[in-house]
Amino acid sequence: MRHAHLASLSAEARAEMRRTERRFLASAAVRYAILIACGFAMIYPLLWLIGASFKTNHEIFTEIGFIPGSPTVEGYIEGWKTSTEYTFTRFFANTFMILIPKVIATAFSSVLVAYGFARFDFPGKRILFAILIGTLLLPNVVTRIPQYLLFRELGWLDSFLPLWVPQMFAVDAFFVFMLIQFLRGIPRDMEEAAMIDGCKPFQVLLYIVIPILKPAIISVCLFQFMWSMNDFLGPLIYISSVAKYPVALALKMSISVTESFEWNRILSMTVLALVPSLVVFFLAQKYFIEGIATTGLKG
Amino acid sequence: MLGVTLRKVSKVYANGFKAVHEIDLDVEDGEFMVLIGPSGCAKSTTLRMVAGLESITSGEVRIGGRIVNNLPPYERGIAMVFQNYALYPHMKVHRNLSFGLRLKRQPEPVVRDAVSEVAGILEIEELLERLPKQLSGGQAQRVAVGRALIKKPQVFLFDEPLSNLDAKLRASMRVRIIELHRRLKADGLNATVIYVTHDQTEAMTMGDRICVLREGRVMQVDTPDRLYDLPANAFVAGFLGSPEMNLRSARLIGHDGRPALRVGGFTIALPDDKARALASRPEGDVTLGLRPPFIDLARPDDAGAVVEGNIKFVEFMGHEVFIYFDLDGQEYAAVTRMEHRSLLKSLKIGQRARFRFDMERAHVFDPVTEKNLTLV
Fold first, then answer.
1. Ranges of CATH 3.40.50.300 domains, chain B
2. Three-state SS for B158?
3. How far apart are CA B142 and CA B121, in angstroms?
4. With an 8 Å Cβ cutoff, are B73 and A298 in contact?
5. Where are the alpha helices (DSSP H) in B56-194?
6. CATH number attached to the domain at B239-365
7. Does the pLDDT of residue A63 top 80, yes or no?
8. What are the pLDDT digits (tens) for B223-235?
9. CB of A204 within 8 Å of any CB in chain B?
10. pTM of the predicted protein model
11. Is residue B50 a contact partner of residue B78, using CB atoms and an 8 Å limit?
């Protein structure tokens, strides 16, 4: 079709078109070369990590390339066993024990609070919202000590409660803020139509708001999942017995306990620690992008 | 009695802005009432107060004789169609339609029958398995009407339902809604309708009666023809009717012992009834209201209410011609039929021409209160 079209053009026009095409190709080649180089530089440490986890300890510090000379899974096998009485099975289980309730609590409480702020008028709303946003700016560190003292008085130290319970009260202002912004972009008509159809406010939330918010809620869960997976300080402060350690602490432990570090074991476990976040991200990617990209839902 | 009654209904927003000023309105059982006004006239706010989506600051709203001020929307026996359809985006069309019934825990066969009945009436059977985002504007609007219809409400509320549609669809949906209203009436379901629009064609063609609002106040409530012929004030006169009524300042004077108008240096006599209505008014400024179709090119033998003006602009519309002319610094519009073709040919911009005012159809308004002084 295009060539037939070309044939009908004058020689001059055809030459001009070819020139344009060549120029376009050349600029595309340069653009992609730069992008690929930058991308490679950024992903290199990760590739090195994965490569090194299959190397022997000796090779890790003698070879610069990331492809192992004599690949071995010894690091994974030995690393999984750890030098303690527990294996990484336990630590992964602990991580999910912390993480799953935390994610559910966050989603539940953030949606409730965001719905309240976005859709209802109540006395003191402005001040409460200002405080909420204020906590967003507050450095985490300043609340660590009072929080620690509080949980100590409650007798919750060395349990998962200090990691779970705060999430039930929408402490992550960022998530609340994100959901409020999303809700503000959604016309209220659908909720009003639902009210006329016979919904009480809680039913409106359940049948209309939550389904519409789904992409945003999935984004919230995803963020919370990844952040909690990588959270080191929280468990470090509140959990003292090794039996309750999550992966993040266990990795640190394998560095400090072993006298001569078995780097390939540590690196192998680090790779495994990355896997859940990656898997969840790729599974939820469709919704995640929708959650960020959806602005209007008209029609 | 399933009409809607508003008594001294007001709305004051939290910031102190008074949007609705003591509105009184009676919508009779089975009546199609149109609320119309320019944007910001609080027509939607008024509708939303009837629906229960907006709180009522003072006054009372009754639906079928029952005061509903503090009832939640779903206890008011109403259904509403929104401007942007407001379909639930995550539910298929049949779920959208049946959502209200399912909330009331109606048995499944009842729900299914109701859905297929409504889908039949609105010709949306083939859309039932689609999601709202797979519908065109006209289809979505039909589903939205269906969602209202399925509840068999006492009162239908429409909030500018056609303004998102293109002109052609709007015209066909207009007919469809009117037919639906008639059909419900014929079936013994006296559906009361309150329909908000800013489109005067919709108002004139659809309404049994029209309520014209301006800045939260009722200007006039009447049938379309009476609003057109007998506007209570200059606002209604200017707002309804296309092309727009000429509303120009004039002077009321005494002439031969009876009131007459002085317009751009010409003295125009008033017909008897209008003269009588103005008899007690002292001389002074008034507003003359005359619709363009009642101003025509004067024939050579015409006498009486004839003025002479400079032609500023001529628009050929096919079956009629709009002529804009200047009369002592004020622009008037006239509409003339194409039968005057020979006369029209001679018209040139800037040229002087004689125009005849049909004073039987003229109105005289108070320039301050805008009240129609010639209504008897």
1. 4-238
2. strand
3. 10
4. no
5. 93-103, 108-122, 137-149, 167-186
6. 2.40.50.100
7. no
8. 999 999 999 999 9
9. no
10. 0.81
11. yes
